[in-house]
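Session log. Operator J.P. requested a structure for one protein chain; no other inputs attached. Running the standard single-chain path with token output.
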Amino acid sequence: MLPSPSAKIPVPRGYTTEQIPRDDPYSYTSGRWLNRDELERKSRYIHFDFQALCERAIELCPGATRIVEHEKKEGGFNKVFIFIMDTGSQAVARLPTGIAGPARLTTNSEFATITYLQSKLALPIPKILDWKDTSSKPIGTEYIIQEHVKGVQLHYKWLEMNPEQHMLCTSALSLMIKKMASLDFPAYGSLYFSDAPIEASKKIPFDQGHGQGFCIGPHCGPIYWNQCPGNPSYMAAPVPIVALVSLTDLNFRDDLTSYSAGLIETGTSRLPKQEDTVSSKRPYQGSIEEHIHLLKSSQEVMEKLITDKRIQNAASPVLIHADFHMKNIYVSAEDPTIITGIIDWQSTSIEPAFLYQRQSPEFAALPAPSQTEILGQETEDTSQTESDRKDVSICNQTYDVVMSALIPRCAHRDSPDPALFSIIHYCHTTWTDSAVMLRQELIGLSARWKELQLDGLCPYSPTEEELQKQKQDSEDFEVEQRLMFWLMANMDTNSDGWVPNEDWESALEANRAAYHLWIEAARESEGEGELGVEKADILWPFDAR
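Structure written below.
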């Protein structure tokens, strides 16, 4: 019932709405959201003293007396200010927003992680000039100020590079991952300085013999910390650090049993106390009781899975950059095979090695299915020539060889069947992802239990009622996914409905036009066993109408 994704939606013009000045340093001004726009922007607002931040940046650049130019950049979780001094030198200030992670711990862990890596490995990480993990005066917020990285972001250079440069760049980056993975750690969690504001009982002292000591403590990465705006557990008013530590105690894992139990506890803690009137509208969402049942079943399944030697052998504690994305990698402008900098170590943590298996970073990833393929449209693929496909394949093979031959604990080729780890990837986000996702993994694992040579019987055995419900829920879920890809193909947005600020007015009108097309298509098919207007309205992913 979806219109063709190649037929672009007409975009009426003339809609006006109040805009925040782009030079406002406190508000989020890079874009807007077609879903929960006010909440998304409010969650990224930071109250601080911008003048004091500028003065501190000047102090850190020898000889500088003033800032002649500055640029604000904004990601999902941080504000970044690039300051250019009257001497020509540059400094970069990064300020985490309230959804970046737990207050104090996120910044402390990032600086400690960078400091530790710089003391152990030859990695091109820009020097940190100053940092604070408190909101004390004069600046009034947490921050990290670093030297500006020389070179250009890899994503700007990648399309200009030839296949040989791609392969050499991929090889250099893969070997950097090898360096990170070579470090040994005694536990899972996040890395901190020994004097981090964490209770002593929640620290594992680590590498105490070289100047500033370190410890492994509560996990402050996105697996355990829900970075979704609107979650009351993380959007509440500031609380004492003791309360934060008490909450993160569920997330601090020093062995695989505790790690897996922590995922279940995290998934349970994210369930609302009462049915969410917004998300529970989705027909495949599942009730709170269903999610509790699925989480209990997942816990029983995982308790058996983690006794399997294949999982234990793939669970070595490993620390690898959490977002090894082209935008976080800088290369030489003259020779893009030379890596000049790796930035944004926020949320990098010590995880079981199996989380990195069968995952390839952007520069080495095989192409994902196109939107037209997912929508079931047969179109001639002119986006990639045979040489392009060969180029991508060589990069993927180069990365795979390094991971398999040089990093045994993260080996791709010899890694266990991914079905063994599927529950681990979904149980902690069951409410966000809906019941259909976790239930599908449980059903699949139950069906393959003997094939996977697992001991005994699978603790989860779906009833006929659950199988029928999963069939219906999967159909609804697929419809919404097809709708989302249709919107992304036609409106140049993502699954969150984000659009650049300059396109906001036209995006709102395009969204309304798309919504009416969607509802009209549902109305025309109503009574023929198709979706129907009421369900079509519920499945619309954006609150903008």
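Operator note: The longest strand covers residues 67-74.
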